[in-house]
């Protein structure tokens, strides 16, 4: 008699098969941030997940943040981190620190991917002028060198994917005068996913997904159409940091991304569970015309 655990493993592989077939050679952008960047075990889980996606035929691109590491380094240098409406006030000195930290994080991620036998290239939005920006204001207030993405030149990413590299992007961009700006990683990932016409954009966060009641984990919404997401925002059912995240999801869908996922990066292998299982574990935002739970 075959051991049940081996049969269960086979069933998992069979369940994943239609997704592997559906998304073969398709671009998936993974926005990597939150606790999954700080916890070493979670970090390795995420990198293994992305490497597996590449090995089964996806074309993954990682866009990473580094806010917690930047805050730590700023504090170590005796500077006081300051935020306005959730955005870091970034003077010239802070910008230098942010770029240094983000480049360090970037190369650490490249090293992890390479250690698993996959070719990776780490770039910033300055390389190939990938990300063009303008100064971003917060409620009309100047918060320094914080950029709003105005243009994406995706050729460098297309070339890297064509040569079978896994691109890892840190969210730094240039304005028209070649001034360096820090970019919110969610915004950068969204802009890149749109420019690449990505099949999927996945946000790894420190939340379970979108809830009908933020105080009730059982109220997790597995799938939302764009109109339903807008309704949640308008009705005040979501608040805080979820509003800009949902708005990014909506913008991405309206600009050509097929599906957007909000995942809890604190759960090991959440990326694989969302993409390769019938129900998933986070929240997927989908187009109006797409049938819900089409995979059930």
UniProtKB/TrEMBL annotation:
EC numbers for this chain: 2.7.2.8
Predominant cellular place of this UniProt entry's protein: cytoplasm
Amino acids binding substrate: 66-67, 88, 182
Cell location: Cytoplasm
GO BP: L-arginine biosynthetic process via ornithine
One GO term describing the cellular component: cytoplasm
Pathway noted in the entry: Amino-acid biosynthesis; L-arginine biosynthesis; N(2)-acetyl-L-ornithine from L-glutamate: step 2/4
Catalysed reaction equations from the record: N-acetyl-L-glutamate + ATP = N-acetyl-L-glutamyl 5-phosphate + ADP
UniProt-recorded Gene Ontology molecular function terms: acetylglutamate kinase activity; ATP binding
Gene3D superfamilies: Acetylglutamate kinase-like
Residues carrying the site annotation Transition state stabilizer: 31, 245
Any matching Pfam family: AA_kinase
All copies of domain Aspartate/glutamate/uridylate kinase, residue ranges: 26-264
Keywords assigned by UniProt, alphabetized: Amino-acid biosynthesis, Arginine biosynthesis, ATP-binding, Cytoplasm, Kinase, Nucleotide-binding, Transferase
Organism superkingdom: Bacteria
Function: Catalyzes the ATP-dependent phosphorylation of N-acetyl-L-glutamate.
Family of this protein: Belongs to the acetylglutamate kinase family. ArgB subfamily.
Family annotation (NCBIfam families): argB
Name of the protein described by the UniProt record: Acetylglutamate kinase
Species this protein is from: Candidatus Egerieimonas intestinavium
